[in-house]
């Protein structure tokens, strides 16, 4: 009788594990399809409008924004103040996800509080919100990298972090290109510096993605709640994208002998 119960428990446990694995695989497959889906009619129309706006903006303005964002991002990615502790090497997926959920929740709250203050402070504080929010996002990505067992001090990992950022805040066409570059990341040979990175596309895609939402943050009265909600959702979206991107790498790893 005891042996039968033990065998039944093992069988039930194995069935539950297999169901969880199947669900996780399906979830990842759906995300892959979303990342590579071609732009729809609405997305193409919105992109066309944004391109017209970009053509109106003087080239020297584009160049100035690109230079500023490049400098800020380089400082973030090459600095040592984004260390998050030792990577979590020996851990189950559930343990990794538990740490990641805590990190995402923490940075959502921080970004929402900062966005609310910036939204209540008019243009000057709203402008200051841009680099602050970006630094919050990059710090979150470093924490997620460590939770999935990756060393954030390595340049290849920092490039992957940049690509996650692009993946979360790009239009469909650019997103598909970025995803293609990320797929099979650990089997690739990576650059030894950042000289080949397309900073112009990086900053323009990001700015285009958040422009309308952040403009509402400048409005009187509603600026504070809008700033809080927008920052919360942007961090939440980035966190989800990072989790799926690192799960993709985890799935591609060969099983332990």
UniProtKB/TrEMBL annotation:
Record InterPro entries: EcsC
Source organism: Caulobacter zeae
Protein name in the entry: ABC transporter-associated protein EcsC
A Pfam family the protein falls into: EcsC
